[in-house]
Amino acid sequence: MTTLAQASPDLFAAAARRVMARCEELARVTAVPGTIERVYLSTEHARVNRLAAEWMREVGMRTRQDVAGNQLGRLDRVVAGAPDPDAPVLLIGSHLDTVPDAGRFDGIVGVLMGLEVARLLRTPLGDGRFGVSLPFGLEVVAFSDEEGTRFGKALLGSSAVAGLWNDDWWALTDADGTSLRQAFLEFGLDPGRIGEAARRPEQLVGYLEAHIEQGPELDRRGEALAVVSSIASARRFQIVVEGEARHAGGTPYDMRRDALLGASEAALAVERLCRAEHHIIGTVGQLEAFPGAVNIVPGEAHFSLDLRGEFDGTRDAVWDDLSRELDAIMGRRGLRWRSREVHSAAAVMCAPLLQDVVREGIASTGTIGADDPAVIFSRAGHDAMSIGAITDVGMLFLRNPDGVSHHPDEAVSAADVALGIRALAESVLQLGADHRAR
Length: 438
Ligand code: HGY
Ligand code: MN
Ligand code: MN
Description:
Helices cover 33% and strands 24% of the residues. By secondary structure, the chain is α+β, with helices and mostly antiparallel strands. The chain folds into two domains: 9-232 and 348-437, Zn peptidases (Aminopeptidase, 3-Layer(aba) Sandwich); 233-345, Alpha-Beta Plaits (2-Layer Sandwich), CATH 3.30.70. β5 (122-124) and β6 form a beta hairpin. α1 (9-27) crosses α11 (414-437). The radius of gyration is 23 Å and the shape is elongated. The relative contact order is 0.17. The mean pLDDT is 96. Residues 95, 106-107, 146, 211, 382 line the site of one manganese (II) ion.
């Protein structure tokens, strides 16, 4: 199909029902029964890759798992009735890994919507195979580790595809002390081949990702879809506060060096400094006291910091201010502190051309606000942050009722998924038309 103008809304509704059913099926692939948790290089990762590969083949795609554990499906560009395997491709996708106690749709819905776009736009080659009648090929990618749940460093799968792999990462360890290198080997991957995952810019025409907003703006506006303007930069730290463990009863307050209270003041300082800035978001998601007994003043405390900003410079300036504030807090309390940066990703602008095709795609749906869709700065991180290093990226946001995400109540409606599939498919056709017009 090379135009969707005459397509019946039922076509998109059926596609959306398939996406929703598959989100439920994937939700059942979890390491923690009763919740959703799938981490990098786990048996759950292998199982969802097999499922995704099966669904990719069902659409007629050639499939492969790359050397970083990303699952890919490809429809070649069709030229004179024959596949052209050397033509550059448009990547469409998102990630299949999750945070702990996750929702069903973060990442997942973007991969499955990409598959439905491939189904809508594929062209039969007459011998049972399929391609696409576009000026480029189409690849659906299921990235293997966007969240960084297991090893702390996010975007590992897409970093490999972007050629951004850092060999220092091999020594990262998970909660059980398993190194990333060891996990690769146990998953059946060869760390020595990681460079083979990298795609060259000339092999790609761009990357499109559909994702739930993970915020309340579309819900508040009463609209289903939005264009993404840029993706927040991120820095993640593990911070250790050192004081002195003492008897909880016999130690007078003026003798205490309570590490947990220092960390608690620091967490409140994170909120205060970030709220004072525009589009800076700081979160302390983990906090632990040691030795962790009810009758011991905590001698040590560990906490995480997830710091994001619309621009790298303002984010870094807030980190500098916060560091000075932590010096003051810990100084007052006779404590020491140190930090270790575990993740960093620069802010990424979505390419104007891809913002335009996404806008055209939304306009084609005719839904509320479609003629002048919202343009949203993504406070959530995405694989597009890595892929932006090698090609243009664009993102389509879907309404996420109440904005709740990274939570079992995360939701998206089948009706909005149907609108999103149409918008995404039309965005691809618009990009094809733009390429032909060059
Ligand atoms: O943390 C994030 O923003 C993304 O969901 N990984
Ligand atoms: Mn997420
Ligand atoms: Mn995500």
